[in-house]
Write a structure and sequence with these properties.
This protein is α+β, with helices and mostly antiparallel strands. The protein contains 10 helices and 10 strands. It is about 30% helix and about 20% strand.
């Protein structure tokens, strides 16, 4: 599933090609993409709109038009966008929509599993729509250990499951949660509300570092994701833990193990991310409790 680094890579690649351009013609071939609305109606509404900005919020790609309206694109599991000269993208059985821009180029949306969505929103609808679904942006200065702790406070779910909740942190998915927890040395099954101040600080830094590493490598191409020009991302070549069952931990050499957390396959180092060790580290020792009395 495309996560924040993949969506940001797409945004960066498309931005110079679509900002300032007009949606001259729009063809939507999959009803599921814009349901419950009719594809012909949505396509007609989009035609003639001029792009003012291309932004990202969490895993959403935000196409802002000069009219104030917004096209909100969520790639879900297998969605991606391609861009190229008119007629040069080639045949694609998984193409669900094509936007013909006023410079003669095409922007095509492809989606193997057909879970992706396009929502055309009026100017006053966007902020509330996103606020109800997303937590803070992890690459912005407002994402701090204190605020992460507030979101996790009292939560008994595993930290892996809590971080997959987009209302906790926007943009994280299975890959980068595993990568961040490894960097922070926190077991994925650790109860979310038990993290102490130091662990929250490590985790906040680790989330940022894992996401920035993904962006530098243009995202991870495990199955369907590719950049708008068709090139694969390289992040999968640099994973520290995700998908590396049985391979040595890059930090301590212990074989990586796989478990399940939040219903998802989860990779971790049983030594660097020892559940028992992290739990004991978060609790004061008996002697320290006695000395504080």
């Amino acid at each position: 599933m495309p996560e924040l680094p993949e969506v940001e890579t797409i945004r960066l690649a498309l931005e110079p090609h679509v900002v300032g351009r007009t949606f001259e013609r729009v063809e939507i071939d999959d009803r599921r993409l814009v349901r419950p609305f009719e594809p012909l109606v949505v396509a007609a509404e989009l035609e003639g709109e001029r792009v003012a900005a291309l932004e990202r919020r969490g895993k959403y790609l935000i196409v802002r038009f000069e009219s104030g309206r917004v096209l909100l694109i969520h790639l879900r599991m297998t969605g991606s966008l391609r861009h190229g000269p008119a007629g040069k993208l080639g045949d694609d059985p998984y193409r669900r929509a094509v936007v013909k821009l006023d410079d003669g180029s095409d922007m095509a949306y492809r989606d193997v599993r057909r879970f992706g969505t396009w929502h055309l929103l009026e100017p006053h609808e966007l902020e509330d729509y996103l606020a109800r679904r997303l937590g803070r942006e992890p690459l912005e200065r407002t994402f701090t250990a204190k605020r992460l702790g507030e979101r996790l406070s009292g939560r008994r779910a595993p930290i892996k499951a809590a971080l997959l909740d987009q209302r906790t942190v926007a943009g994280l998915g299975n890959i980068y949660v595993d990568e961040a927890l490894w960097r922070a040395g926190i077991h994925p099954l650790r109860e979310a509300g038990t993290l102490d101040v130091d662990e929250l600080a490590r985790l906040t830094r680790a989330i940022r570092d894992a996401l920035r590493a993904g962006i530098r490598s243009q995202g991870a191409s495990l199955r369907d994701y590719a950049q708008p020009d068709g090139r694969r991302g390289r992040a999968q070549e640099r994973f520290r833990v995700y998908g590396r069952t049985g391979e040595p931990c890059l930090r301590c050499g212990t074989p990586i193990e796989k478990t399940r957390a939040g219903g998802r396959g989860t990779w971790y180092c049983p030594s660097c991310q020892s559940q028992a060790a992290s739990r004991s580290a978060s609790r004061p020792s008996r002697s320290s409790r006695q000395s504080s009395v």
